[in-house]
C-alpha cells in the first residue's frame, strides 16, 4: 500500500515510487524539489519503519563509514562536523523524505566520517518544533542513526543558563530533563507504536547514561575545564520566542538549570530505540529572571558564543567519542 508523505515544502507525493526507485535519489536533480520552508503542521507525519529503512539504505549505499556513535550538533556547534576526515556529506534536501533545516547557524546536512580515527555520523543542524515540524519529525533522524548502526547518541544544544551560578560559555552536562512539552500531551512517540522501534511505554529514569556522565565529569577535570563544567537539568520549550521572566522563575522553582528548544524529544526517541545517550548544553546566555534589566536574549549572540567556544567543544566531544568507543570495544 502506498503512503502519502508530506514533504518539507508541503508537496504531497506517493512514496511507493520512492521505495521502488530508491536509487533515483542520488546527489542529482532527481530529488523532489524542496525549499527551506516546511509546512506548518504539527500533525505527526508517518515516518514508518520502512521509510526509515529506506533512508538508511540511501545513506549506507553512499558511504563506507559504519558509525556506532551519532552526534547532533546544536546551534552554532556545527563546526564539529568540519573536523571529520574522509567525510561524506549529505545535504538534507538530497536525502529522500528528509525535512530541511531552516535555522541560521544550522548547515543542514548529515555528515559521515572519522573523528580522530573513529567512525561517526553527525547531524550538522537539527529540526525544531518551532520550524513547523512535528516532534516525531524533529527526532526522526535519531532513528536513522539507530538504523545506520549507532549504539550511542551525543546530543548537543545551545541553551540559556537559568541556574544563577552558570556563566556564558559554560558546558552543562545534562543529567536529566523536564519534558515541559510532554506536560501538554505532546510527544515524539505519540500515535501508534511500532514495536520494531521500541516499546509502547519506554522508561525514562536513566535517559542520560550515568556512566557517560561520570566519564564526562572525569574528562572535564583531565582537560582542566572543571570550573566551566556544570551538571544540570535541561528543559525544552516550543519556541521560537525566548522566555518571559515569570516563565523562567516558574521553571527555576521546578529545578530547571538550562532552557533550550530541542534535545528532549530526540533523547526520548533515542531511549525508545535503546540508544545510550550523552547530552550537553553550551550556555550561550544568561536567562533574565529580573524585570529591571536592559539585557535581551538574541539568536545572533547564541550563534556567536557557539563559534567562540568551537575549539573547547570540539576537543571535549572528540575525547567523549574516544571514551565511548573504548566502552563499545570493551563490550564486544
Ligand atoms: O538547536 P539548539 O537547541 O542548539 O538551538 C537553540 C534553540 C534555538 O534553535 C536557538 C535559539 O537561539 O538555539
Ligand atoms: N528557550 C531558549 N532557548 C535558548 N537557546 C539559547 N538560549 C536560549 C534561551 O535562553 N532560551
From TrEMBL:
A GO cellular-component term linked to this record: cytoplasm
Catalytic activity: 2'-deoxyguanosine + phosphate = 2-deoxy-alpha-D-ribose 1-phosphate + guanine; guanosine + phosphate = alpha-D-ribose 1-phosphate + guanine; inosine + phosphate = alpha-D-ribose 1-phosphate + hypoxanthine; 2'-deoxyinosine + phosphate = 2-deoxy-alpha-D-ribose 1-phosphate + hypoxanthine
Stored Pfam families: PNP_UDP_1 (PF01048)
One GO process term, biological-process aspect: nucleoside metabolic process
Alphabetized UniProt keyword annotations: Glycosyltransferase, Transferase
GO molecular function, one term: purine-nucleoside phosphorylase activity
Metabolic or biological pathway: Purine metabolism; purine nucleoside salvage
Residues covered by region (Disordered): 1-33
The protein's enzyme class: transferase
Domain Nucleoside phosphorylase span(s) in chain numbering: 68-322
Polar residues compositional bias, start-end: 1-10
Gene3D superfamilies reported in the protein's UniProt record: Nucleoside phosphorylase domain
InterPro entries xref list: Nucleoside_phosphorylase_d, Nucleoside_phosphorylase_sf, Pur_Nuc_Pase_Ino/Guo-sp, Purine_phosphorylase
EC number of the protein: 2.4.2.1
Family: Belongs to the PNP/MTAP phosphorylase family.
Entry protein name: Purine nucleoside phosphorylase
Organism of derivation: Polypedilum vanderplanki (Sleeping chironomid midge)
Organism taxonomic ancestry: Eukaryota, Metazoa, Ecdysozoa, Arthropoda, Hexapoda
Amino acid at each position: 500500500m502506498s503512503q502519502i508523505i508530506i514533504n518539507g515544502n508541503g508537496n504531497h507525493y506517493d512514496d511507493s515510487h520512492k521505495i521502488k526507485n530508491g536509487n533515483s535519489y542520488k546527489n542529482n536533480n532527481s530529488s523532489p524539489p524542496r525549499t527551506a520552508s516546511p509546512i506548518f503542521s504539527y500533525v505527526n507525519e508517518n515516518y514508518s519503519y520502512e521509510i526509515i529503512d529506506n533512508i538508511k539504505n540511501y545513506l549506507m549505499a553512499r558511504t563506507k563509514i559504519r558509525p556506532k556513535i551519532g552526534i547532533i550538533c546544536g546551534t552554532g556547534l556545527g563546526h564539529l562536523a568540519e573536523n571529520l576526515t574522509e567525510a561524506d556529506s549529505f545535504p538534507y534536501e538530497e536525502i529522500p523524505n528528509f525535512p530541511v533545516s531552516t535555522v541560521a547557524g544550522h548547515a543542514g546536512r548529515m555528515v559521515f566520517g572519522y573523528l580522530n580515527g573513529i567512525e561517526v555520523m553527525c547531524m550538522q543542524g537539527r529540526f525544531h518544533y518551532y520550524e513547523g515540524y512535528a516532534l516525531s519529525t524533529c527526532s526522526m533522524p535519531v532513528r536513522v542513526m539507530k538504523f545506520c548502526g549507532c549504539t550511542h547518541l551525543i546530543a548537543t544544544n545551545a541553551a540559556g543558563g537559568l541556574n544563577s551560578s552558570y556563566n556564558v560559555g559554560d558546558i552543562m552536562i545534562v543529567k536529566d530533563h523536564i519534558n515541559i512539552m510532554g506536560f501538554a500531551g505532546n510527544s515524539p512517540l505519540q500515535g501508534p507504536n511500532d514495536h520494531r522501534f521500541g516499546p509502547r511505554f519506554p522508561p525514562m529514569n536513566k535517559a542520560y547514561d550515568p556512566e557517560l556522565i561520570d566519564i564526562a565529569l572525569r574528562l572535564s577535570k583531565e582537560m582542566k575545564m572543571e570550573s566551566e563544567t556544570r551538571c544540570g537539568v535541561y528543559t525544552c520549550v516550543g519556541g521560537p520566542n525566548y522566555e518571559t521572566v515569570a516563565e523562567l522563575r516558574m521553571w527555576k522553582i521546578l529545578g530547571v538549570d538550562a532552557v533550550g528548544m530541542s534535545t528532549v524529544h530526540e533523547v526520548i526517541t533515542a531511549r525508545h530505540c535503546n540508544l545510550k545517550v550523552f547530552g550537553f548544553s553550551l550556555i550561550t546566555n544568561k536567562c533574565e529572571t529580573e524585570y529591571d534589566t536592559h539585557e535581551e536574549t538574541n539568536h545572533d549572540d547564541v550563534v556567536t558564543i557557539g563559534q567562540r567556544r568551537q575549539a573547547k567543544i570540539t576537543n571535549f566531544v572528540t575525547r567523549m567519542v574516544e571514551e565511548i568507543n573504548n566502552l563499545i570495544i570493551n563490550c564486544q
